[in-house]
Amino acid sequence: MPGSWVVAEVNADGSLAHISAEVATMTRQLATAAGAEATGIVVAADPAAAAAELATYLPRVIAVTDAIAAGHVWSTIAAERIVGLTATDLPDHIFLGAGPDGRDVAGVLSALLGWGVLVNATAVTWNDGPVVEMSVFGGKLMTTSAFSGEHGIVTVRSNVVTAQPMAKPGSVHAIPPEATSAPLTLPTVPVLEQVAEAGAAAPIEEARIIVAGGRGVGGPDGFKLVEEIAAELGAAVGATRAAVDSGWIPYAQQIGQTGKIVKPQLYLALGISGAIQHKVGMQTAETIVAINRDPDAPIADFADLVVVADLFEVGPALLAELRARGAGGR
After folding, report:
1. pLDDT tens digits along 68-81
2. What's residue 193's pLDDT?
3. Predicted pLDDT of residue 139
4. What pLDDT was estimated at residue 61?
5. How wide is the angle at C-alpha 74 spanned by C-alphas 257 and 254, nearest 5°?
6. CB-neighbour burial class of residue 138 (10 A; exposed 0-12, middle 13-18, buried 19+)
7. pTM of the full structure
8. What is the band of 319 on the pLDDT scale with cuts at 50, 70, 90?
9. What are phi and psi for residue 111, nearest 5 degrees?
10. What is the pLDDT of residues 7-55, one digit of tens each?
11. Integer Cα distance of 16 and 35 in angstroms
12. How far apart are CA 314 and CA 303, in angstroms?
């Protein structure tokens, strides 16, 4: 049945990845504009929970149970099953999240199906096909592209769409892996070891409040202040590429063109100049508050509030006030 497919990712606990809920919402809206159908595909050792959740965003979901998906690299397994499905039900377009797994699946699907890929979409509209907006050249230029043929694959960056469930859940159709046999069998890659980051909280892309530091924090000791303020606010800690490249904070917390795209309710930028590469990763925050001693810093052009002052004077005062309020000092 022609239309668009959403290839969903599944978290370690079996739940639907947040980015897949966002992509499903976008694809459903595009399908409505095209007068077509949107279908979700879940491939996992136990797809039931994720498929049921995906069905709250899409009218039709196909759940493929494949035991080998447990303990093996998921991307090639998912791609093989999806190619098998296309033998009887060829979609017009396939949409995925632009995270590591989504990019891997998109690459394998492109090779097996011979379809083109438009990557890292920051917006998608419909005009006789998906019209994809992408940020290129370090965020300095926005491009708009479409497919020359009738089929294509699109990867969508996180937080460019707000996930919105339907008024009534769709249906889930469970099928066994033998019903999705592909003409080419791909090698499976076992996962030998998984390492979880100690003390890791919710993904930074899903945080409601983010406190981020840049080159202006001065070093690892400066990030202790950032972390303390974040702890008082119940926030996630983010950083610019300059801070990550300096080794002050892990890459997993980098925000920007080459890091994460975030959309919090509050973004507190400490010692961040606001270069375009960082701006593209956080400009959709509902409220942006910056502390920077340079009144001409680029962030002053798009922040909602700018405190022009020395971070190491304002930061400790802010921290003391937050702690006083937390201790009943309202």
Report:
1. 899 899 999 999 99
2. 86
3. 66
4. 98
5. 20
6. middle
7. 0.82
8. very high
9. -70, -40
10. 999 998 999 999 999 999 999 999 999 999 999 999 999 999 999 999 9
11. 26
12. 17
CB 84 within 8 A of CB 109: no
R_g over Cα of the chain? 22
- Compute the distance between CA of residue 222 and CA of residue 248 in angstroms, rounded to an integer: 9
Query: What's the 3-state SS for the chain?
Result: CCEEEEECCECCCCCECHHHHHHHHHHHHHHHHHCCEEEEEEEECCCHHHHHHHCCCCCEEEEEECHHHCCECHHHHHHHHHHHHHCCCCCCEEEEECCHHHHHHHHHHHHHHCCCEEEEEEEEEECCCEEEEEEECCCCEEEEECCCCCCEEEEECCCCCCCCCCCCCCEEEEECHHHHCCCCCCCCCECCCCCCCCCCCCCHHHCCEEEEECHHHCCHHHHHHHHHHHHHHCCEEEECHHHHHCCCCCHHHEECCCCECCCCCEEEEECCCCCHHHHHHHCCCCEEEEECCCCCCHHHHCCCEEECCCHHHHHHHHHHHHHHHHCCCC
Q: List domains and CATH numbers for the chain.
A: 3-180 (3.40.50.620), 204-326 (3.40.50.1220)
Is residue 180 exposed (0-12), middle (13-18) or buried (19+ Cβ within 10 Å)? buried
